[in-house]
Design brief:
Blueprint lengths: L16 H20 L3 E2 L5 E3 L17 E3 L5 E4 L4 H11 L7 E10 L11 E10 L4 H17 L6 E6 H10 L4 H12 L3 H9 L5 H8 L8 H11 L3 H19 L6 E3 L13 E6 L8 E5 L13 E7 H13 L7 E6 L2 H11 L18 E3 L4 E6 L4 H6 L5 E5 H7 L4 E5 L5 E7 L4 H5 L4 E5 L2 H11 L4 E5 L6 H4 L5 E6 L3 H5 L3 E9 L1 E5 L1 H6 L1 H14 L1
Parallel strand pairs: 1-5, 7-8, 12-14, 12-15, 18-19, 18-20
Antiparallel strand pairs: 2-4, 3-4, 5-6, 6-11, 7-9, 9-10, 10-11, 13-14, 15-22, 16-22, 17-20, 17-21
Helix pairs in contact: 1-3, 1-10, 3-9, 4-9, 6-7, 8-9
Length: 545
């Protein structure tokens, strides 16, 4: 029998029996909260015209949309996101000038993401869009609804990070940051590379107040003192002040609603959803390596559908909530261990040597006679395990490890959604373009060349985005230096420590891509939920480094 008759395609799955009952129950609890907050039910089509989700309006890259044609030749897509659909409905059916409206929805969304990421291509979303009210009170109402919804499904430990879409854009404008530098900073923030953000801010030649505001982009939990100081610094810059005053007004409203303990402010938060204009937020809890809820204000989106109206919304992914509910019930916060994933070999040994200086030990991890995979420090409630370098960012991204120690080359190559928080200062080397002296001319004249490498993503980023040079990249796993010698490639992209192997084979460093060293990475949920413990760890390590 053809297996395709029994198996589902990659990224979709069947639900039945108890698991499906749990999902229906969870959806009912969420819907009850939405009704209690005065929401009206709405349902939109599973597929719509491509224009509703085009780059100018939607949030999902065209390549990730499921697209097909109707009988008249129109391009239609399976819904990747509810917000544009709800905006279209609101513009068509509601008189938003007379009265604001809260619309709640539940249904499946479809994103044609890459395989082997551990993510579903079809998932159930539920959420609310509050249209017609642009006040800070409306923002606070939505955040209060998120808190009530999470509590209703049995989760008590959660944190909501809040930023402002206008803050980042206003900073760039006031500092007169050019497009190339702005793109670099956005990429650093998008990759949670706070070390890079700090370096970017320190190198800016701007007024001191503006530099202080830029430095706050690298802070993932703004204190009240920092917030108040930022208000003073922003007073000189109207657009920045507008965003800051909006957040300050929201802060007051959240305190009035008694939910301030669930929120923190993160000025460096940015979103790939280009329609956001005001506050943006993401909610975190134990059990997942990514947010359980995302949302924000989008005051200009409805104008694409012929009606001007302010709006704010949020969405839960129900399938993720099921996992979070199960995990939250299994472990109390005070009993939770911090888990470290360490890259095998010299990296792990040097890491634990530094850890010993701040009182963290795990003596049996290098016992040659042990067959253990997990090593525990019961006193400090810490767990350690060893993993191959390329696997460390994956464990951290998915929340299997809170913290990872891995080389910068691996972080760049794997491109996972983690926080890069600390340069440990050892394992220093360089990623370089190497080859025979004759290859210099090929690089200088921007001719198309062949590049052999173990790091195709790094090579692609360097040649395509930095040098704007067309290359043919060949992935290898063994001795990369062999490739130009036998004529497989013109040059190689590889790590260089001393350069001895290159010299012995008639090769040399032609261009330097970037400096490398050992880095500490942190899961984004862990950074929010275990902020006190992880921040202390980072501070202690900085002191000994």
């Amino acid at each position: 029998m053809n297996n395709k008759l029994l198996h589902t395609p990659d990224g979709v799955r069947d639900l039945y029996n108890e698991e499906y009952k749990k999902k229906l129950s969870l959806q009912d609890k969420l819907h009850q909260v939405f009704e209690n907050h005065g929401c009206i039910d709405i349902q939109t089509p599973t597929f719509e015209y491509f224009d509703v989700f085009s780059n100018q309006i939607g949030t999902t890259p065209s390549k990730d949309l499921f697209k097909f044609f109707d009988t008249e030749g129109n391009t239609v897509v399976l819904r990747p996101d509810f917000t544009p659909s709800i905006a279209r409905c609101a513009a068509k059916y509601f008189d938003l000038e007379e009265e604001p409206v809260k619309l709640c929805y539940m249904g499946n969304t479809f994103i044609n993401s890459s395989d082997y990421q551990g993510r579903l291509k079809e998932s159930t979303q539920c959420g609310v869009e509050f249209i017609g009210d642009g006040s800070a009170n409306a923002d606070a109402q939505m955040l209060a609804m998120v808190v009530d919804a999470v509590k209703a499904i049995g989760i008590e430990d959660m944190q909501i990070s809040i930023g402002h879409a206008g803050f980042f854009d206003a900073l760039l404008t006031e500092a007169k940051v050019d497009k190339k530098a702005a793109k670099k900073l956005r990429r650093l923030l998008d990759n949670k590379n706070f070390l890079g953000v700090e370096a970017f801010a320190e190198n800016l030649e701007v007024e001191e107040e503006l530099k202080q505001l830029f430095c706050l982009l690298a802070d993932f939990d703004i204190t009240d003192e920092d917030f108040n100081n930022a208000l003073k610094c922003a007073s000189k810059y109207p657009k920045i002040a507008e965003a800051m005053n909006s957040l300050d007004e929201l802060r007051t409203n959240l305190k009035e609603k008694g939910i301030e303990k669930y929120v923190s402010f993160e000025f460096g938060m940015i979103s790939n959803y280009e329609y956001y204009t005001g506050i943006i937020f993401a909610g975190y809890t134990y059990g997942l390596g990514e947010p359980i809820v995302k949302g924000g204000r989008y005051d200009t989106l409805l104008s694409n559908f012929g009606k001007d109206a302010p709006a704010i919304g949020f969405a839960f992914v129900v399938d993720q909530l099921l996992t979070a509910v199960s995990t939250n019930k299994s472990t109390a916060k005070e009993d939770r261990y911090l888990t470290f994933a360490l890259g095998k070999g010299r990296l792990a040994k040097k890491t634990l040597k530094i850890f010993e200086e701040i009182g963290i030990t795990c003596e049996e991890i290098f016992d040659p006679n042990t067959r253990k995979l997990i090593f525990v420090n019961e006193e400090l409630k810490l767990r350690f395990f060893l993993a191959k370098g390329p696997d460390v960012p994956t464990y951290v991204e998915h929340g299997a490890a809170d913290i990872g120690i891995v080389g910068k080359d691996t972080i760049l190559e794997e491109d996972k959604n983690v926080y890069e928080v600390l340069d440990l200062g050892f394992g220093n080397c360089r990623m370089c373009i190497c080859g025979p002296e004759s290859a210099k001319e090929l690089l200088q004249h921007q001719e198309q060349i062949r590049v052999a490498t173990k790091y195709p993503q790094i090579a692609k980023e360097y040649f395509y985005n930095k040098k704007h040079q067309t290359v043919e990249i060949i992935k290898l796993n063994g001795s990369i230096e062999l490739a130009p010698i036998v004529g497989l490639s013109d040059v190689i992209c590889d790590i260089v420590e001393t350069g001895a192997t290159l010299r012995e084979n008639g090769l040399g460093v032609l261009e330097e891509v970037c400096n490398l060293s050992a880095r500490m990475i942190v899961n984004q949920v862990s950074m929010k939920m275990e902020n006190e413990r992880i921040t202390k760890l980072i501070r202690d390590l900085k002191n000994v480094l």
